[in-house]
From TrEMBL:
The keyword Acyltransferase applies. Residues 5-176 form the N-acetyltransferase domain. Signal peptide: none annotated. Its EC number is 2.3.1.-. PROSITE patterns: GNAT (PS51186). The keyword Acyltransferase applies. It is an enzyme of class 2 (transferase). Pfam families: Acetyltransf_1. Keywords: Acyltransferase, Transferase. This is GNAT family N-acetyltransferase. One of its GO terms (molecular function) is acyltransferase activity, transferring groups other than amino-acyl groups.
Length: 176
């Protein structure tokens, strides 16, 4: 692409854009046989995106003013994060969720650029690190996170994700 990814903190007026990107990714996941994000297609929002936007935790990314992806960065653990990571009453880490690309931009290295921006933003905000989970069966995503210097920590086996019971890999990027 040759142009820089720019992060934007989503505003309430961006909700339609954000929901559109989530729906597109959920539809694509379903088309390849994945049960991940099926709730989005059924109108369930496990991440309460409107409130996350109000808290300043939802971001979208552009290249040349064109939206290319979005993600959620939580300063505090969700119930899901506490189940996987163990409960912590701290805002030391960001928890990365719902990272996705507009489909026409996949395979162009943009996800790595977005992850680089997330890491830089996290360092700027003084976080110790960025944590994320990834379904273990998705080799492409696991490779992406490892190539972006996220350290694999462990696998949580047979975790009930609501849409499916699956194994989840935990990754952490150290900002220090």
């Amino acid at each position: 692409m040759g142009n820089k990814v720019v992060l934007h903190q989503a505003k309430t007026s961006d909700l339609g854009l954000i929901e559109g990107m989530l729906y597109e990714t959920a539809s694509w996941l379903k088309s390849i046989g994945s049960k991940q994000w099926n709730g989005v297609l059924e109108g369930r929002d496990n991440h309460n995106t409107p409130q996350a936007i109000e808290r300043g935790e939802v971001f979208y990314c552009t290249i040349n003013d064109e939206p290319v992806g979005m993600f959620i960065l939580w300063s505090n653990q969700s119930e899901w994060d506490a189940q996987l990571w163990g409960a912590e009453d701290s805002s030391e880490y960001f928890y990365l969720h719902r990272l996705n690309l507009v489909r026409k931009f996949s395979g162009q290295g943009i996800a790595n650029e977005i992850l680089a921006e997330i890491k830089a933003y996290s360092q700027k905000k003084g976080k110790s690190g960025v944590r994320l989970d990834c379904i273990s069966s998705n080799a492409v995503l696991n490779k992406l996170y490892q190539s972006a210097d996220f350290a694999f920590l462990k696998t949580i086996y047979d975790h009930d994700a609501g849409e499916q019971v699956a194994d989840f890999n935990l990754y952490e990027y150290d900002c220090k």
